[in-house]
Amino acid sequence: MHRLSKLLLFLLTYSLLFYSKIAGQCPEKISISTDRDLYFTGETIWYKVCCLGSGTSKPSLLSKVAYFELYNINNNPVVQLKLYLTEGQLNSKLLLPDTLSTGTYFLKGYTNWMKNYGSQVFATKVISVINPFTSDVSAVINNLSSDIQGEVATENKNWLQVSQTKNEYKTRSLVDLSIKKSEDVKFLTVSVARLSLLNRRGNSALPVADKVNGINNIRDGLKHSPDHLPEPEGILISGTIRNKNNNNLLINEVITLNLVSSFPTLNISRTDNAGRFRFVVNQFGNKEMVIQPLNADTSGTGYLIELDPVFASDVRNISVNGSKFDDSDIDELNKCIINMQIEALYNSVLKNNTQTGQTFREYSFYSEPEIKVILDKYIELPTMNEVFKEIVPAVGIRDKKNVNSFKVFGTTGALKNYFAMVDGIPIKDINRIAAMNPEDIKQIEVINLTYYFKDQELGAIISIQTKKGDLSAMNFDNRIFRQEYTGYEYSYSFSSPDYSIDSIFSSPVADFRNVLYWNPDLKTDKEAGTLRFYTSDDTGTYLVSVEGIGPDGNKIRIEYPIKVVN
After folding, report:
1. How far, in Å, CA of 410 to CA of 203, rounded?
2. What pLDDT score was predicted for residue 133?
3. Is the pLDDT assigned to residue 238 strictly greater than 80?
């Protein structure tokens, strides 16, 4: 009854979503904020991505996942990231490859559900990237647009205010600002960077097709049944599976997805009449992924698995209008390039930009085992057969005509079925386990009772974990689908020197940061807050930019310059 209720709730929710989309516009909107608008190759883009309900400043309930991409002017992806959203946002960084050419690039953000509406509803932010190490860099810079625009902004209406006591500061001195905001303004972001690296306004970055007759032709409703589901729980991995020998689809077959790990996980899906499967996966970082039938014999049959693309293939063409850089701009950019090189030398001394704690707690899907054997506590044995015979209670390896299998005893006698794993991957060919070197094994965990997972009876569980934890200790069956899987991007925090500490203030290490401060999640006490950061050793004009999301879901931005002098 509980499962039926969940199914009915899902169908009802899906139906409401579908019919509401036909009548109206996309229910979600992505917002992208960055520390600046112009970068040099090898530098870091600090960014914030928010997923909001359309026309609101509230996080969307449809999506826990956002997709974030860096495209070049030819609409080819350079970097593609998956983001896990906490309370509707993620704050992190993107390292620009040092092989990029000087030119205009686009940051794009969207959700799986937004794909149904086409790329017209994707968030797009235009940035410029300069490769200072190419011989023709000066000529290419002259062809860049100096006016680079992000998203459409809403008029401030005094919803966001910043007050200061002065606009000129000494090097390595404290800047102390007060911020006032309306209660309706959410997701405050603050950036302080050299003026030449930030937005200058006055330009447009619109889809080419949307400029016809000066009107906006963005599609505002679904005109067909949705091809992409929302992702309220995690990334959907979907595709089809076929028998490689006869190319027949596997219909109504239970399929498993596992990640190579010291903490075994298990994802189960049943294929439909088109041989399609669907898994929900939550994983940070990179791990190997294995997909295979749960019960089908794979010893003599290979399977062909075709995964659906995760990132959108529908990309819109964008034209960027703006004025050219003048001579004073070029001089400023040259100064920023020198600063970047100085920072590259001293970055490890001055900064400690660290990964935050955003991740999922790792644990085995079967929780605590009944039996756990750590092999280093015992004398070395030459074969896995002897390991199970001598030191692993309740489990043995039976060799019958050179075909190995496990025999597991529970409290009431021998158990009929078992589910064997190595480094989190189900292994059906026990001969491969028997051939492993015991010196490579860290521990063996056993559940010597019949274990059920969802609607599947797995039997007893035998989980072998190697010292490396990467499946390299076993001769793996290459007929089984195995490939690298890239999970969510980690969250990172920005940090800068604290010159209130005497030892840091008097340090001879040069500080020539192009970005003095970046806070993608400024906390305020109700409607007021304080912003504090320190200037560097470099003099010049910097722009303090404060952004928030207004009640209509659009950005509100206020900015003003400060000068740093000797």
Report:
1. 73
2. 83
3. yes
Alpha helices in 369-501 (DSSP H): 384-390, 430-434
Q: What is the pLDDT of residues 119-129, one digit of tens each?
A: 989 999 999 99
Name the residue ranges covered by the structural domains of the chain: 2-223+313-359+492-565, 371-476
With b for 16 or more beta-carbon neighbours within 10 A and e for fewer, the 395-427 pattern comes to bebeeeeeebebebeeeeeebeebbbbbbbbbb
332-345 mean pLDDT: 88
371-476 has which fold? Answer: Ferric Hydroxamate Uptake Protein; Chain A, domain 1 (2.170.130)
DSSP state of 403: E
Kindly state the tokens that stand for 401: 């005509």
Q: What is the rounded average pLDDT of the residues 350-359?
A: 61
Distances (CA, A) of 3 to 8, 9, 385, 455: 9, 10, 42, 11
Distance CA 477, CA 360 (A): 30
d(CA 51, CA 68): 12
Closest-CA residue to 157 (of 541, 548, 488, 451):
548
The C-alpha atoms of residue 94 and residue 452 are separated, in whole angstroms, by 42
Sheet with 303-307: list strands edge to edge: 276-281, 235-243, 303-307
Residue 90 has which token pair?
Answer: 């993620």
DSSP line for 326-369:
-HHHHHHHHHHHHHHHHHHHHHHHH---EE-S-S-----TT-S-
Contact 548, 181 (CB under 8 A): yes
Contact (Cβ atoms closer than 8 angstroms) between residue 388 and residue 446: no
One-character DSSP codes across 148-177: ---S-B---TTSEEEE-S-SEEETT-EEEE
DSSP percent split of the chain into helix, strand, coil, nearest 5: 15, 40, 45
Residue-by-residue DSSP string for 65-127: EEEEEEE-TTS-EEEEEEEE-BTTEEEEEEEPPTTPPSEEEEEEEE-TGGGGG-GGGSEEEEE
User: 244 by DSSP, 3-state: which?
Assistant: coil
Task: For 484-549, give the DSSP string.
Answer: EEE-BPPPEE-----TTSHHHHT--S----SEEEEETT---BTTEEEEEEE--S--EEEEEEEEEE
β-pair partners for 533: 175
Residue 382, beta-bridge partner list: none
Distance of CA 101 to the CA centre of its chain: 25
How far is 276 from 253, CA to CA, in rounded Å?
A: 10
Decide: pTM greater than 0.85: yes
Q: What is the identity of the amino acid at 436?
A: M
